[in-house]
TrEMBL record, chain A:
<dbReference type="InterPro" id="IPR046867">
    <property type="entry name" value="AldOxase/xan_DH_MoCoBD2"/>
</dbReference>
<dbReference type="InterPro" id="IPR037165">
    <property type="entry name" value="AldOxase/xan_DH_Mopterin-bd_sf"/>
</dbReference>
<feature type="domain" description="Aldehyde oxidase/xanthine dehydrogenase second molybdopterin binding">
    <location>
        <begin position="4"/>
        <end position="265"/>
    </location>
</feature>
<dbReference type="Pfam" id="PF20256">
    <property type="entry name" value="MoCoBD_2"/>
</dbReference>
<dbReference type="GO" id="GO:0016491">
    <property type="term" value="F:oxidoreductase activity"/>
</dbReference>
<dbReference type="GO" id="GO:0005506">
    <property type="term" value="F:iron ion binding"/>
</dbReference>
<protein>
    <submittedName>
        <fullName>Xanthine dehydrogenase family protein molybdopterin-binding subunit</fullName>
    </submittedName>
</protein>
<dbReference type="InterPro" id="IPR016208">
    <property type="entry name" value="Ald_Oxase/xanthine_DH-like"/>
</dbReference>
Automatic annotation (TrEMBL), chain B:
<dbReference type="InterPro" id="IPR036856">
    <property type="entry name" value="Ald_Oxase/Xan_DH_a/b_sf"/>
</dbReference>
<dbReference type="Pfam" id="PF01799">
    <property type="entry name" value="Fer2_2"/>
</dbReference>
<keyword id="KW-0411">Iron-sulfur</keyword>
<comment type="similarity">
    <text>Belongs to the xanthine dehydrogenase family.</text>
</comment>
<feature type="region of interest" description="Disordered">
    <location>
        <begin position="580"/>
        <end position="607"/>
    </location>
</feature>
<keyword id="KW-0560">Oxidoreductase</keyword>
<dbReference type="GO" id="GO:0005506">
    <property type="term" value="F:iron ion binding"/>
</dbReference>
<dbReference type="GO" id="GO:0016491">
    <property type="term" value="F:oxidoreductase activity"/>
</dbReference>
<dbReference type="InterPro" id="IPR000674">
    <property type="entry name" value="Ald_Oxase/Xan_DH_a/b"/>
</dbReference>
Amino acid sequence: MKRKMRGRGVAASWYGIARTATIDRAGAWAELDDGGTAKVLTGVTEIGEGILTLLSQVAAEELGVKPEQVTIGDNDTARSPEAAHAGATRQTYMIGNSVALACREAKARLFDEIAQAWEVPVEDLRSFDGFLWAESTNKRITMEEAVALCKKRGVVPVGSGSFTAHGTGLDPVDGHGSPWQAYVFGTQVAEVEVDTITGEVQVLGIWAAHDVGRAINPRGVEGQIEGGVVQGLGQALMEDYQTSEGHPVTHGFAKYILPTSLDVPQINSVIVEDPDPLSPLGAKGIGEPSLIPTAPAVMNAIYDAIGARIRDLPATPERVLAALHEKRRADAQTA
Amino acid sequence: MPELELDLTVNGRRITRHVDPSYRLLDLLRDDLALTGTKEGCGAGECGTCSVFVDGKLFKSCLMPASKAQGTTIETIEGLSRPGELTPVQRAFHKTGASQCGYCIPGMVMAATSALRENPAAGIEEIKERMGGNICRCTGYTKIFEAVEIARDVIAGTLPETALNPELTKTSYIGHNTRRLDAPSKVSGRLKYAGDMEMQGMLHMQVLRSPHAHARISRIDTSKAEALPGVHCVITCDDVPGEDGFGVFVHDQPIMARGKVRHVGEAVAAVAADTVRIAREATKLIAVEYEPLPGLYDPEEALRPGAPVIHDYAADNVVKHIPLRKGDIETGFAAAELIIEERFSTQQVEHAYLEPEAGIAYVDHDDVVTVISPSQNITHHRHMLSTIIDKPINKVRFIMSPVGGGFGGKEDMIYQGMLALSAMKSGRPVRLVFTREESIMASAKRHPSRTSYRMGLTKEGRITAVEFSMLSDGGAYGMSSEGVMRKAAILSCGPYEVENIKVDTTVVYTNNTPSGAFRTFGGMQAQFATESMMDMAAEKLGLDPFEIRRRNMMKAGSRTHTQQTLNSASIDRVLEAAETASRWEAGPPNVRGANRSDLDGPDTRQPCTLGARFNEARHQIEKAKVAS
């Protein structure tokens, strides 16, 4: 066997969107504000996934303004409607859709007033990127002017939205039930190089194909895939929280080893869009699912490279060497 | 305490300060100069969030005593550009989406700036190496590398500055790479996380934690701590006015240990004082008498008859068991032509968000108890806190501060209750910032798991039956364990249609660090086992790994493991997309790595061999040798 052995492996996966085996819900308020800007209030803030940007895109699209003209209110139980927790791959699906619904209501208020003022059918009105116009006419104004006109008529264009995902509980005996209304699927291929003397595994490439429903911000989706893959790689190869009789042994980053810039493979993301038919946006989610296939794809690739199966994570150099030793012993016995 | 006089230049301004001699450069910058863009992630020089320039060289400011900064010139993230302006490196980070939670980003920007100052022509290998001392937990580094390469080329003039501009759209903002709204505040260090916030009259909290994994508490004497000058209040479980107990599914955890401790690092008492130092001194004056109890450190031992009981309500130590039954596995295994039996295990994993837990609590003018913290679930936390402090819901307010990484680890209300109680007792705002060690020992982890797997298949590779049993260590408290077991069970057998299944997932209490919510919530542990089994089966049957997955994959109309009928299933599309993108060479997974033709493509990186940053010097030496 050469010192450096390469191999490839694949793993598939699936995941459910939003809270599990229960009815999930989220609320939002929206207002088309002076200057053609917009306010959106929802019980959520950024945990890093990009939700604020995504919500500004959704609000901009629904209202007809620019994303940078949207202000998202802080997450505050005393000031904003319930949107519940930032987890369960539910932010895009639950909050995104409730914001879309709230914006639709606010826009409908505005459009009703403009349609009456212009004496055109409301169905002919359109708005995008800071302008509002009536199809097949030369009537076109800025959103700033539109909001001013609406307010002059005595109406503040506000709206609220509530979005529901209908999951059901599991039967306590056989577990039957419909835990989610939307599912996503993913597949990753890993290419590794195993050093058969040191046992070190380097992941050189990952090809990650994930269904996200609809990619509202493709670059943001890629960021979630890349982050999930590298957390999956950490779990596959190095991360290991250990205790001894309950006492933490790996109590700092000197002992708890995390992936750094030198461990990262080239990550090739492929975004697949299978829109969700049950929600206004059609988007599903990507936060958690991106992590799942990485570790098994890497273990399958290690097997392809050296013929040793790692069943216990993480595949540290010590474990890889032990598995190689075991394989050589077994090969010698059968020979 | 004697004070140290320092005279140095920070971001172009001469600074003279008298500081505590125990100060690190990081403390001077953050606490004295309010330059909170420099973050503390670990306090041990391991993560790089506190990176600054000292006399032009990149330094980790948590490792440098403030006294060593005498006479130096310091540049922090705030000094890189004037307010409202961004450097090309910062603009490139904005452009590529290189910041997610943003907590590591000021340090990352400093490291990237350093790399390009050291070598404006640095190649990607050198950039990676020069940034190797900075940890990012969110991004997977990829967009950061992209940003640094763009910035390098813009600075060098080989890429026009317009490369940093936003992408335009004429049709729709859905599907558009809108730049992150929060990026300018993150790349410039302006965003305030909970630990960066201050309030008038704010006190500092420190927590006394259990040194025992399992022990009865016979007495807590706080009198000496309360008598220490500068201490405003000491709290224990006796200060809880309402019904004590929190948890995501079962409220089995008291705000502070009540009667006994169940894991090392569990909060026992807390002090609010004028300074962190006084609060820490005071925790050492709290006398706690423990009677050690036999501990449980292995999930299988937890199930043995006669095992120590961790929680009285659960005499069998079982937090939750989730069963799934579909079809009849005996029939399924009888029809199988190949049966594979294997065991798998996964380890306990730390979230390692770069922002340690932090928060501020205060009681406002309307008697509303308010907690600002990076909580991932303020809605549930306010419900629980209102019961714990016995106040109506509208007198409890949770504000979610920017979260410096969560991944599920900030769903548990492990410190917000202590903050609320001390704010109520002292009448002052109180802030708590965890150390990295505290964060690691007190917060939940990914559940470690042990899975027994039995799979039956036909010669054609169709799965006829699966028997799947997973045992997880939930540690000392329930936290999200119940939900994690449920999700692990639902997803267990993967995206495959299996007629006959018997799935059991069980989680037990032990005296280990608690396990809780972590990105995938049990899905990863279960599917690691399933996807390993699929490849083992494919090898035995001589099938390509994509092919065996296609032969079993779910389709529209398939019944899931919980007997839900799917309206659609995109597994066929993602399999094909990955197969095509990776230029996969078909064949069974029988150790053909050495003979594959699809390896080492342009879409892979080169193996890492350290030393890229010396390449230029090496090149110069070689040239000099040739010349001589």
